[in-house]
Amino acid sequence: MTRGVQASRRRLRVDWTRRTRRNLFTGLLFISPWLVGFTCFYLYPALASLYYSFTDFKILESPQWIGLGNYQRMIADPLFWKALSNTLFIALIGLPLSILSALGIALILNVRHIVGMSLFRTVFYLPVVIPTVAGAVLWIWLLNPQYGLVNQALGAIGITGPTWFFDPDWTKPGVILMMIWGVGDVVIIYLGSLQGVPRDLYESADVDGAGRWGKVRHITIPMISPAILFNLITGAIAVFQYFTQAYVISEGTTSKGSGPVGGIGNSLLFYGLNLYNNAFRYFRLGYASALAWVLLLIILGFTVAMLWASRRRVYYESER
Asked: Which residues, including other chains, have CB under 8 Å from residue 144's CB and lie 6 or more apart?
């Protein structure tokens, strides 16, 4: 009897193993197009760039192994530190301003009893659907120091407007204005989060005599803190890869032809532009690969830091 049970168990185990292998094979067969695409277009390029970051590699020459030479060169490269400082300026000043602006707009648009509120929500979202290059060209015209609408509006109230993208001291404030103008997608995320705040919390606050700012500070912000954290992390990742707008503005405000891109006095030389110059202007693919991996580590460090700093400040309803 015991031998029969053991034999039956062995047969079931063999059948289960065959079934598991067959299911695994079937699953791999179904996802094989994704696996091939991931391997060819993501995994292999990533591993290749990691190898090239330790080499002196130009397009028409074979890569020569130099170890940490590219990373040592990076430390002594003034353009690397210039690009990093410009990017950090946008990340530490422009990103918080855009996040706060989006939150303020969302709080205003969350009011239900204003006529035509759906129209206002659409208007604030329109900049998101405008192509990036078209938006950058638009802002070159808006911030034109001579006939731009922004300086004309400032002149109407007696203020002499700056030269914006033609002045190294004002290029990054101009970029921050563009960032605030394009926060429509962040506003939508905030609006969706605000719709989920229980109304009874505000009613209880009204009974306790809380003011408008008190309700925002003690109810609204804690309840939508996951959305704030999400927007901060995704915004930081986007800012550290800031490229297209700066490239278009640099090409539109300087006459360098095929030279490096960076704006007036390299004031728009963000990290992505510096990487682009080294890869496709100077053809230093090994050095550009090292820059890309350092950028990955910087983004990873900022993400981990924000997650660590917010671990006790973000409210998740499922953790109550």
From this structure: 151, 164
